[in-house]
Amino acid sequence: MNVELQQKIEQLLPWVDRPARYIGGEFNSVIKEPAGKLRFALTFPDVYEIGQSHMGLVILYHLLNEQEWIWCERAFLPWVDMEQSMRREEIPWFSLESCTPLKDMDVLGFSLPYEMLYTNVLNGLDLAGIPIHRQDREEEDPIIIAGGPATYNPEPVADFIDIFVIGEAEELVLELCQIVHRQDLTRNQKLELLSRVPGLYSPATVEVRRRADGSIESFDSQVPLPVMKRIIGDVDQAFFPTKPLVPFLQTVHDRANLEVHRGCVHSCRYCQAGMLYRPQREKSLETLTRQGTELVKNTGMNEVGLSSLNTPDHTQLVPLIDNLNKELKDQKVSIGLPSLRVDSFSVGLADSLNKAKKTQITLAPEAGSQRLRDIINKNITEEQILNTVKSVLDAGWRELKLYFMIGLPGETDDDILEMADLFGKIKSLSRGYPGRPLFITTTLSSFVPKPHTPFQFVAQFPKEVLEERIRILRKRVDPNRVKLRWRDFPLGEMEAAFSLGGRELGPVIERAWQLGCKFDGWTDHFKYDLWVQAFQDCGVDVSGLCYRDKTDETVFPWEVVSCGVEKDFLWRDLQAAWDSKSTPNCFFDKCSACGVSADFTC
Ligand code: SF4
Q1: Short-list 166, 127, 128, 132, CA closest to 146
Q2: Which atom of ligand 1 has the smallest separation from the CA of 595?
Q3: pLDDT tens-digit profile of 423-468?
Q4: What CA–CA distance (Å, rounded) separates 274 from 404?
Q5: Residue 339 reports pLDDT greater than 80
Q6: Which of 94, 333, 362, 380 has a CA between 20 and 30 Å from the CA of residue 342?
Q7: Using CA atoms, how far apart are residues 321 and 186, in angstroms rounded to an integer?
Q8: All structural domains of the chain with their residue ranges
Q9: pLDDT on residue 355
Q10: Dist. CA 282–CA 236, nearest whole Å
Q11: Which CATH code for domain 3-228?
């Protein structure tokens, strides 16, 4: 423990919001004797409540600490009040377990689930006293790594990260640690060795060759490209922490989370996670029953969340719920389903799990018209949506939350009018039911084209078009019956830019951070005008990134890495979208030859 730094930190705590964010010491957190150990800091570039809820971070924390020769600690980005105080008192960014300055670690690993965290990465490095550019780092600096879904396009942050971990990190991170722990190598020699490990991407080994118009022509690389993701083949045997630490603060997912399977094969064409995590791999009923029971016994939590991209897909879900109810009947534990499909089976399950508490139920039809649902491969009809709502009403819910997207590829004003009509049909359906009238809250998120999806080739609609569509919708919807919420469209534009752009965005991120941008994913902290200025100052055209269609000949920045799904398949699937043709669920139905089986067992 760095007692001197700890005392300085403690003096700041009475003056900042939620001081428990900065104290560590939670039940099941890990303290070790540091001598001779590899020092690893797992960092999440947002506040504690968000980062500590992240399943990947929890798994890696305990997996790394299982190794006697590694001490893994955590660090979350201080909120603005704490950061101000730390900068004033010259306190560097520190680890929660031992108050060690992160600059003194061997490895600093950023978890990057989404793009709007990039300025926080720079802010964190700067607060830690580590050079933000990888080229300026010296022998004593930690090796800066990053992993998570956003790193499937590593190029916007290629100037700042030494090594990207592509895919599921459980095996890969240990291979990385073994190299970093070697005392006979210099920092550069370690980086050179790491660049040759399958699944690790070192941006220093790649030069991007561009045409006169700025588009990418090819990559000159010292290593074979693309870097293929790594996955855990047998998730049933994979490490899973059944003694996770128990936060003092209420976190975003304040429950014991049990991962039931990886992957989702519904092939929704807008969904990046569905492509990245293929193939689908289930844990067995026996493993899940044991892990769920141990989780509760070791944490005292009173809710188990069965988590995955699409939990109702698990083939043993009903027996699993029965088993957990049996095993945990004395502990009064509730079981939660964080994801629900739009079908009566899922609603029935949710009903059986929430007999006493019928607050709000969430469904995600995503698009209001059948034409648009076919384009996105949602594979549900209006009749199925209405039948599901009927099940919701039969079960006694009177508050319905609906998720839709706006600006989906091929969308027209007519699709928006059909969405309004769908609200009307749902309301009519609810009229015959006793009790409170049905209240509908609808959240509209703007469509963002994501790398490695069929829609990576499709332009985003300009935000002015989306604003007009919201006006159309508002005119048709009775605000007393349907509450509409939508996310900032300028934020969606920036998300698209950082999803689709390449190394030209490094200077933009740096400029935006210098201008004061941070916590950009928080709507009240997102400063669009400063981002516009940063793009202008760096001479980068946002509209060229977001608002232009691409072809199968376009070389994308993220082609340096691969999730196994081939570009040919994505292009074919896009043509199927325009023809309103369905792509089947390949776990229950038939393989669409997406390319994943060439490298992994499906
Ligand atoms: S190769 Fe076939 S079975 Fe495997 S993930 Fe792709 S579509 Fe599914």
Answers
A1: 166
A2: 1
A3: 999 988 888 888 788 889 999 999 999 999 999 999 999 999 999 9
A4: 18
A5: no
A6: 333
A7: 52
A8: 3-228, 255-339+563-602, 358-487
A9: 61
A10: 7
A11: 3.40.50.280
* pLDDT of 303 higher than 90: no
Ligand 1 atom at shortest distance from the alpha carbon of 565: 6
What is the third-level CATH fold of 358-487? Answer: Transcription Regulator spoIIAA (3.30.750)
Helices 3-12 and 80-89 meet at what angle, rounded to 10?
130
For residues 444 and 404, the answer to whether their CB atoms sit within 8 Å is yes
Q: How many CB atoms lie within 10 A of CB 136?
A: 9
pLDDT in tens, 73-92: 999 999 999 999 999 999 99
Largest Cα–Cα separation, the chain: 76
Pairing of strands 281-282, 261-262: antiparallel
Q: How much distance in Å is there from the Cα of 561 to the middle of ligand 1?
A: 19
- Name the percent of the chain lying above pLDDT 90: 79
Q: If you average pLDDT over residues 380-392, what whole number do you get?
A: 91
Give the closest residue (by CA) to ligand 1 atom 5. Answer: 279
How far CA 116 is from CA of 339, 395, 410, 494, 525, in Å, comes to 24, 39, 26, 8, 11
Which among 277, 582, 602 is the best mutation to test ligand 1's pocket, defined by most ligand atoms within 8 Å of the CB?
Answer: 602
Predicted local confidence at residue 362, as pLDDT: 86
Please count the other Cβ atoms lying within 10 Å of the Cβ belonging to residue 299.
Answer: 18
Q: What is the pTM of this model?
A: 0.95
Closest CA to 361 of 381, 339, 383: 339
Identical fold, 255-339+563-602 and 358-487: yes
Residues 6+ apart with CB under 8 A from 237: none
Contact of 339 with 312, CB cutoff 8 Å: yes
Whether ligand 1 lies within 6 angstroms of the CB of 598 is answered as no
Sign of CA dihedral 332, 337, 342, 346: negative
For range 21-30, the mean pLDDT = 94
Ligand 1 centre and the CA of 593: distance in Å? 6
Both structure tokens of 283: 């844990």
- As a whole number of angstroms, the distance between CA 65 and CA 286 comes to 25
* Sign of the CA dihedral with 455 first, then 456, 457, and 463 last: positive
Contact 596 CB / ligand 1 (< 6 Å):
yes
Q: What is the rounded average pLDDT of the residues 398-405? A: 91
- What rounded mean pLDDT belongs to the chain? 93
Reply yes or no on whether the pLDDT at 508 is more than 80: yes
DSSP tag of 267: -
- Which H or E run contains 366? strand 361-366
Nearest CA to ligand 1 atom 2: 591
Rama region for 50: left / alpha / beta (φ>0; ψ in -120 to 50; rest)? alpha
Residue 210: phi and psi, rounded to 5, are -115, 155
Mean pLDDT within 266-291 = 95
**Minimal-distance CA residue to ligand 1 atom 6:** 594
CATH for 255-339+563-602, among 3.40.50.10860, 3.40.50.150, 3.30.750.210, 2.170.150.70? Answer: 3.30.750.210
pLDDT score, position 357: 64
